């Protein structure tokens, strides 16, 4: 009887002890927001909190991308540890600890780059529990598309139509459309990392080339071979990323001579001036001959046919005559 009572007491004690241990083994959940958007070059906060509210000072907090190591940021033994940090985040991360005793410790990333886009994991570990949350960082790349206002080229030559991004950034994964005022068909289309000629304007077949030597720097001029008179006009360089787009316009002037239009204009002006000077000089000679008394109505005067005609007409009108 005594043994049975002692057994029951021992069992109750063990159950109570077990319940007491469970109550002290605090379980927590790590949470964040599904996604965060930020403009290129700005600073961003990636949220991470514990539920229920719990002091995280003595916990290990690891921020990492899909690859577990190296870390984006590591907080361990009450301090930040940068020894295994990803090189691209060097001197750019900061774990905010103002509210760490309440289980709130967002990660701040300074001067966000396009390469910072992607999924981040906030992993928290205590002595007897751990949890993790994911957050998607979307870097909004704002850019301006720029070119020169106009380009002139001789008929039959090759020409480059400039187009580049400001600020400088890679356009490898962007869509680049060169078009004339009519949106489709295209003059040239670059999409999914390659040229696409399926919807190209027939007049440009086998004559266009998007130069990609500097596309990682945001420079991608369009080369048109053997320019025709019909190629003249406005061209639009339209660039589109996953979350932004912009365009610019360049005017192509096709000339029918090898000389630039400005040089030809100068030559026209020179010819007009020379012709005008010739006419004025001739008139002056006739006037001089008249004043010297050589303008007589007789055709036997030793004058040129034009001078005689000029003087004779003046004589008949009664304006000039010398006895």
From TrEMBL:
It comes from Xenopus tropicalis. Keywords: Disulfide bond, Glycoprotein, Immunoglobulin domain, Membrane, Signal, Transmembrane, Transmembrane helix. Pfam families: V-set (PF07686). PROSITE patterns: IG_LIKE (PS50835). This is Selection and upkeep of intraepithelial T-cells protein 6. The chain crosses the membrane at residues 269-289. The lineage of its organism: Eukaryota, Metazoa, Chordata, Craniata, Vertebrata. It is found in: Membrane. It comes from the Eukaryota. SMART domains: IG, IGv. The gene is LOC100496169.
